Amino acid sequence: MSTKLDLSDEFAGRRALVTGGTRGIGAAIAQRLLDAGARVVVVGRSPTDTTPTGATFVAGDLLTEAGTRNAAAQALEVLGGLDILINNAGGSKAFLGGSESIPDEEWQRDIALNLLAAVRMTNAVLPTLRASSAPSIVNISSTAATIAFPFDVHYGAAKAALDYYSRTLAVELGESGIRVNVVTPGPISTPNSDELRKQFPIKDDEWKNYVPLGRIGGTEDIAEVVALLASERGKFLTGVNYRVDGGMTAR
């Protein structure tokens, strides 16, 4: 007879910070942590109608070092400490003309948002994480880091750098007991990505040709893997990259 695992209070007493947590994948992650008892601060430009009501919102401009450090300071003041950091903030603009059509300022913006925001936020909260009894960092990447998409090569390059940074950080912080892992979403249904996919010559019913499971994933699929990595269930996991993509990169 199988026994269902009760995870309703898995994060009771834990304090979490989720960047880009006001909508999409970030909001789903924040809600998953809240549902299991965590206290959660979400950082974003402004709250939305999908921002989890149980989370505390902190406004932050993660494109700059000062903005990132200010958001971190506000979050730590609210939480009084930190156990879980989810670096989810990210995004990009597609350039269907290919790599040569991407302006220099878009390269700089993507590196700032998709790489440096995570680096700066991590550095800002590391002293507090070192005081936690079960510290965990989860960085959200993208399959663009491993599959060549010329229309968003700037985004993929930044995420590939984030993957390398995460692996190195896992080795560096291992002795401190801080675990660092990556979750790499494939095609997931969010407002931004749904709008982007409308520009592609792939119809909704054709994704089975690219994704072995034959469908677009949901934000809850990502949130569940993040919860595993952030929890004590994942206490011997560090330096790993979970590709939650329905098998797309395998194909």
What does this entry look like structurally?
It is a single chain. This protein is of the alpha/beta class. The chain has a single domain (15-244), classed as NAD(P)-binding Rossmann-like Domain (Rossmann fold). Helix content is 37%, strand content 14%. Strands 3-2-1-4-5-6-7 form a seven-stranded parallel sheet, sandwiched between helices. The chain is globular and about 45 Å long. The mean pLDDT is 92.
Cα-atom radius of gyration = 18 Å
Q: Strand portion, in percent?
A: 5-15%
Let me know the CATH homologous superfamily: NAD(P)-binding Rossmann-like Domain
Largest sheet: 7 strands, parallel
Helices and strands, in order, run as: EHEEHEHEHEHHE
Derived from helix and strand composition plus strand pairing, the structural class reads alpha/beta
With strands numbered from the N-terminus, the spatial order across the biggest sheet is: 3-2-1-4-5-6-7
Poorly predicted runs are none
Helical fraction equals 25-40%
Query: What's the oligomerization state?
Result: single chain
CATH architectural arrangement: 3-Layer(aba) Sandwich
CATH class equals Alpha Beta
| Structure annotation, total helices | 6
Mean pLDDT across all residues, rounded? 92
CATH topology tier name: Rossmann fold
Number of domains: 1
